[in-house]
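User: As part of a screening pipeline, I want to sanity-check one entry by hand. Below is the sequence and the SMILES for copper (II) ion. Please return the complex as structure tokens so I can compare it with the automated output.
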Amino acid sequence: MPLRAKRNPKSQNRWNATFGDSPNIQIRYLSPLLLLWCFPLSALAEGLLWEDAWVRSMPPGTEVAAAYGRVTNQSDQTVVITSISSSVGEAAQIHDVIADGDQRRMVQLDAVSLAAGESTEFKPGGQHIMLLGVAAPPPEGSRVELCLLTANSAERCTSAPVQRQAPMPATETSGHHH
Ligand SMILES: [Cu+2]
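Assistant: Here is the complex for your manual check:
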């Protein structure tokens, strides 16, 4: 699994010893409070897999930030993502970009439904995650916690690096059209 290669081997060992192998949370970035809040739910994460999550670094004075990444439903049932939370900002929303005449504008989505085995990509120009009310922009090179909440109240979190450009994909997806 590509994510595993990115983990720090030490924290990986500790994670395995303590919690087993399933959640793709980087434990060293979580405050104890966040951990208490995240962990019991992530055990019921319904087989959602985060990959290549990242947050675009923002110029000073900007109060919104966009977050991206690919989420795959690895379970054998439909999973409905109903909300997103983040360690920065006052709120996080799922947005899409739609054509409105000659313009393109953002609309908020109430939910994203993933059939068994289906992936969705949050990416620039398409569906994305919007972090709102960001008082202190997270610096480039830092990490932001992003958590998906599903209709069954399961939660799946990831630690997303803050950077200017999209990371190199862990798996090749160009040329695929759905
Ligand atoms: Cu947006």
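Points to compare against the pipeline: The chain has one domain: 2-163. Residues 1-28, 39-44, 174-178 have pLDDT under 50 and may be disordered.
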